[in-house]
Description:
Layout: H1 2-20, H2 22-55, H3 61-107, H4 112-116, H5 146-153, E1 181-186, E2 191-196, E3 201-206, E4 211-216, E5 226-228, E6 234-238, E7 243-247, E8 252-257, E9 261-268, E10 274-280, E11 286-291, E12 301-303, E13 309-313, E14 318-322, E15 328-332, E16 340-345, E17 351-355, E18 359-361, E19 366-368, H6 370-377, E20 386-388, E21 408-410, E22 415-417, H7 419-423, E23 432-434, H8 435-491, H9 498-544, H10 549-553, E24 569-572, H11 586-590, E25 597-600, E26 602-610, E27 620-625, E28 630-635, E29 640-645, E30 650-655, E31 664-668, E32 672-677, E33 682-686, E34 693-698, E35 701-707, E36 713-718, E37 725-731, E38 750-755, E39 771-775, E40 781-785, E41 790-794, E42 800-804, E43 817-822, E44 828-832, E45 837-841, E46 847-851, E47 859-864, E48 869-874, E49 881-886, E50 890-894
Parallel strand pairs: 48-50
Antiparallel strand pairs: 1-2, 2-3, 3-4, 5-6, 6-7, 7-8, 9-10, 10-11, 12-13, 13-14, 14-15, 16-17, 18-19, 18-20, 21-22, 21-23, 24-25, 26-49, 27-28, 28-29, 29-30, 31-32, 32-33, 33-34, 35-36, 36-37, 37-38, 39-40, 40-41, 41-42, 43-44, 44-45, 45-46, 47-48, 49-50
Amino acid sequence: MYGTKRELMQKDLQDLEKSIYPDPQEAARNIPLQKADVNQRYQKLRTALDKQGEALHIKIDTIIHGMKSEIDDMGAKHKAALDQQEVAINNSITEITQIILDLKRLLETTDVYLVTEYTSRTMEFMNLPSQFQVTLPTFTPLEINQMQIQQQIGSLSKLAITFFLDKPRILKDIQTEYNRLLNVSYKRDRKLWTCGSSDNILRLYNLRGELLRSVETKSRNVPWDIALTQSRKLVYTNPKDKSLNLVSATQIQTLIRLQGWRPWGLCSTSSGDLLVIMDSGDREQSKVVRYSGSTETQIGITTDSRANILTSDRDNQRIHIIDQDGHFLRYIHKCGLKIPWGLCVDSTNNIFVADWGTEHCDICHIHLCEACVEEHLSDESKEHYVVPFRLRRCISKCLKHSKKLCIRFCTECNICICLHCVASGEHEKHEIEDILKMFGSKMELMQKDLQDLEKSIYPKYQEAATNIQVQKSEVNERSEKLKKALDKQGEALHTEIDTIIQEMKSDIDDMDAKHIAAIDQQEDAINNTIPEIKQFILDLKRLLDTSDVCLVSKYTSRTEEFRSLPAQFEVTLPTFTPQEINREQIHKQIGSLSELSIRHSLLDDPRILAAIQTEYNRGLRRVSCLSDSELWTCGSSDGILRLYNLQGELLTSVQTKPGKIPADIAVIQGRYLVYTDYSNRTINLVSSADIEEVEIIRLGRHHSLCSTATGGFLVTMHSKDGKETRVVRYSGREDIQLDKQNMPLLGYFSVTQSIQLDERDKPLYASGFNKYLSENRNLDICVADCDAGAVVVVNAAGKLRFRYTGPPSSPWESFCPRGITTDSQANILTTDYWNQRIHILDKDGHFLRYIENCDLQQPYGLCVDSSDNLFVAEWGTGKVKKSNTTSKHTVVAIHWQTV
Length: 899
């Protein structure tokens, strides 16, 4: 788990920094350009109106002004959409940057519990607020290097005769204080300098393993490699601040500080020079540079007095020996090496190996080589827990059993536990993992997240932010063209059509404002996302620096969430079409100004974003929004109506009257909860004052209901045998009148419409009781008729408009719609219960897309709030899931579970 999580975190970090984050940045930069374009385009329309008005009579001035105002309004709305997009992208960039920094810091830590608490957020950033792509050109000049020319001439080596032992063996083990020992360098006087990745301390040991000296690096950063100069002074590389440093008896001197390149490995030469391996900051290039008078030891490579080359093969636990011409001589292996890393050779050709793979028993506090682990574990007189040496003393004691180590992790409780906790039964039937396995999974997740954030997500947002400015400029140019066209036409008209021109200008201003508003909304979405991505990057880097298994295990990737920019919308720009002057048709002579149209596109990849638990044990059926932050629910397990907030907190529970299971619920007039009691054939209203249920209608067998735009509600009503179904409209006054006991006054609601048959007197709805309905914003009545396997839509007068039985591409699939709702764009959304998905149709019944492959399980009831957030009541899992489906939709699915 730890490794998987760490890889995900590395990938997320790479995607955020390299792909996702640049897109919103570019998009954010383009928003002002789009707004400028809106102003320019709409100003052109105003100019056109003015020019036309100068040639016409005074009567057209008002119309031209009105049309220019409309252009301004459209430009403002267009810019507003771009502004919103720019804000979202910039916010994401900020957050991704922070996440990347946090991930890098977390990947450098050995805090097991901090790493296990890591939660990946790369999926959250995978979808950009808008899709903008840019590839910036780069030029990297290369300077002539005299040393490289000299190296091309070649070198003459000396004769050397080498005698090998038939069987190399380990002569001495020296235990250091590093979690991860990187490199070692021999000092000739039977002393060894060492460095590791666990701290910033350089340590000098003698061959008996005694620590003689400790030196903290100058910048307190972890050193990567060490070497000794001919004068036996220690030199080390610091990739973080791009420096090479010399350690003397009293101070540390910075020899070289590089620009744009990072030093890694180093070794000294026989001539006293220093060879340094360095790479470019983006890791696209690497090179070896010779510095006069310096020294380096590369990771896992050294040479002996005979010019033989020795290099460590850490994955195969052996050392290769090759001659100076690259011919293989032999291995050093089968001698207890475990992950050999750094190498050095003394004056008598003794090899010193920095072994990465030392183990440690965290209970006995004993260091173990690989050969000793099995023998140590064979002692069953006491407990043992062997961990990698770098993680020694990182496993904490159990809070409940103070003498026991927390070597297990309960994924359901999200806590570290000991074996006694496991044996106690407290975590029975919970998923239990080894803490080190969790640590490894989380570290892999963090590595993956970091890679995703840096290489994919972050660059994408930067590119998107840049494109926003271009879009704003185009909006302004378009606005100006429209205004100029209006002005030009107005100058050719007569004074008597002034009024008409003014009205058209007002239309332009309105469209301008709508256009700018749409851009501002888009800009806000982008600018809000950019800081979020920056913060996520910082958090991700910090998490990658840790080794806390618990923290890493909590990491959830969000890169997919940021991959797409917010709300792509299509704009049908207003145009001005001048015509020849005709006094009899003055209004037509001015021309027509088309309306601004902004459409939000559906996302390519809907995803579940959140989950909330409810308390129903037989199936949650219906959900209805009381507000944007509160929702009523009902299920088939009991007669209790429950009100939740979006955090899953139960705010109110109401027992139905007289404890019967409700068939359906709806919120009318934005505040009153109404539910149907099928068995008692009643419709009941829950008063908000004292949560008292009031029977308001007793007529027929009511099943499903929905609120209407006029403050009433629609109800499906069935005959006793279920063979006949009708939709009945109940209407009332504009506000419910209550008496002193908060009871609705008698006669408030009355039947004003009944819909049952089509124009040929055929039943509109099939026999059966499984009918659910919703009123669309165009006042169409939409019924999910599960018994017919269709969505039946009639207009407000009850005339059939269409039947939807599934998309044309899959006529063979069964279709059982249960829940149904509509959004602000008059789209129809209905649940496909058995196929685990939701169908989205336009207002005319044309299939748009599915919401599927996002872990929906038996979706049932649906509702939409004022912001087009979609709530889905799932029958089968007991959780509330939140998913984004379109540029405006957010889906929250509510499930049932036994409590």
